[in-house]
User: What shape does this take?
Amino acid sequence: MLFEIAPPYHLKRVDDKTVTLLKSVKFDAKDKDNNIKEFDTLSQMEEFLNRDPNYEAETHYYYYGLFTRGGKEIIPCEYNNISPINDDLYLVKLDEESQGVFDFKGKEIIPCDYKEIVYKNGLILAKNDKETKVFDKNGKLLLDLTEKYAFVSLVGNNILVRQNEDNKYFIIDAKGNKLSKPYDAILDFMQVADKKDIPFGAKVSDYLVCLNKKE
Assistant: This one.
């Protein structure tokens, strides 16, 4: 199988060895009856096409993996995409419906069972059509919020939820404890246009704006 270094490089130290993101390349040839031949290298495909003019080259496919420079496999080369989400974790995608998380040593933290995965400040929010769960960065399940709330998102070090019964928003912590009373809307401060009242030296990411409709 042909391997290429996948730009941009995503490098991390593992046992004092540098690792890099690699992609494997597959080549296909197809005839008019949609019969497909697969090849590991471009030269193999070209040799076959020279012998059999009934086939034409098809788009080649890439699968990504993480390896040390010495060739040790960290994450198998079988994913459609791999991208770092912090210094220690990688988001892997089999497709848009199947995402998961590995750490930089190759341990599967979250299985590829989720359509959406969001990481923020040590929390991982994982969603699919049937489940909504919150994990810590080591893959420990903290909260199963499946069917409990109409909306779930990560804000700061906590979790923003919307109740099913009255569509009110409030903040909970990673143990499920309520940290705020219900509001009609809770926004990240970055979503608000007028930031003139923010205290000097404070980070806008530390602030949430809570709104209630006028009676």
